[in-house]
Amino acid sequence: MSAADLLPLLRGLTWTVALTAGAFLIGAVLGVPLLAARQSRLWPLRFLAMTAIQIVRAIPPILWLFIIFFGLGMGVMPISPFNAALMGLGLIAAANMAEIYRGAVASIHFGQWEASAALDLGRWSILRDIVAPQAFRVALPSAASYLIGLMKETAVASTIGVAELAYQGNQLSQLTFRGLEVFALVGLFYVLLSLPIAWLSRVADGHLRAKVAR
Amino acid sequence: MFPTQDEISTWLPELLGGLSISLQVTALSLLIGIPFGLVLALGVLAKSRSLKGISLFLVEVGRGAPALVLLQFIYFGLPTTGLTLGSFSAAIIALAWNTGAYTSEIIRASLQSVAHGQREAAEALGLNRFDELRYVLLPQGLRVALPALLGFSILIFQGTSLCFTIALPELVSRAYEIGSTTFRYFPALLAAGVLYAAISIPAALLVNHVEKRAGLYAQR
């Protein structure tokens, strides 16, 4: 394998990063209203959100991508592979992030809610000023490990033809007949990609911890 | 949009056949993978440097690389060394490796969660290393690990869908095939989704239940 062979892998790397970042962003944003619905006082809304989260998590990512790319793409509206992957993985990320947020909010001591009520803060103010900043710190490590998991999950996008890392690896192995080295290299790239995420998470966690534990 | 009654009755045998393969791969991967995870966990905890190194390498690669890449590495990569595997055995080796790597972390954490006094007491009673593990650490550790292991089993069941890429005729492959011959992609894939959900959702509820029970046990 020559250096020129590495070029497609590096191009694939950028698509993997773009897909991971995009899907995570969608999930992190959509997870908030989903959690709000999940914790709503109206039971139909609560039930609906719970069912949606369960269903999204019950179906494998590859099948979601197929349902969106082939199912919707062929029948309803044409959709590009990248957008289909972004939609599918974003959907899955939203369900998982909602669960991570829920765990974080549940970990806030109920004394915090009581104290906020005693101070006569409004519902919005309690969430924004008291609960969210504390929950954010709790959610950060789980969100980071989920981000690493999501990054590996983006490999399934290769099945619908998104030219990301696993796809390029596949092409390269067929071209060079050296599957062993190529796939080992692809695996290594995924491991290397997860290192900065883990490192950033540790640094951020350290900073946030230092802010509280004085 | 949705499959008709006729379609369901013609597709169902095909899809159920696929589901059965998915379940077989899941069961075999877990049967091989979880004991492998225990071995890896003990390897990582071992004093011997080389043993520790090999175990750590297998765990880090099995967890760090996507399952899809492991699968393709074994199915498309190994033949270049002269070792050609069928898609079924390649699927089981890759997913068992993946299972071993993840469960080794779960099992290691659970073994370390057993109170230190238990280990000292076992030594004081003169139990050898194997008996200490067999009668003291595992019974207590595995109880802690159970909910996480069950939760992981659901993920492996869903992970079998990746075997689509190595042409194993499991559930997703069958649904895709039906879609490509009838051009009714959406209904066929939806039917497969319903079958996945029919297993994953009750299993997830069961895991929740076990988690609560295990929590109660720990509180006593």
Write the layout of secondary structure elements.
The complex is a heterodimer of chains A (214) and B (220).
Chain A: H1 3-38, H2 43-58, H3 61-75, H4 81-106, H5 110-118, H6 123-153, H7 165-176, H8 179-212
Chain B: H1 5-45, H2 49-64, H3 67-77, H4 87-113, H5 116-124, H6 129-159, H7 171-182, H8 185-219
What's this model, at a glance?
By secondary structure, chain A is mainly α. Chain A has helices at 3-38, 43-58, 61-75, 81-106, 110-118, 123-153, 165-176, 179-212. Chain A contains eight helices and no strands.
What would you say this structure looks like, in words?
The complex is a heterodimer of chains A (214) and B (220). Helix content of chain A is 84%, strand content 0%. Chain A is built from 8 helices and no strands. The mean pLDDT of chain A is 92. Chain B is built from 8 helices and no strands. Chain B starts with a helix and ends with a helix. Chain B is an all-alpha fold. In chain B, 83% of the residues lie in helices and 0% in strands. Chain B has one domain: MetI-like fold (Orthogonal Bundle).
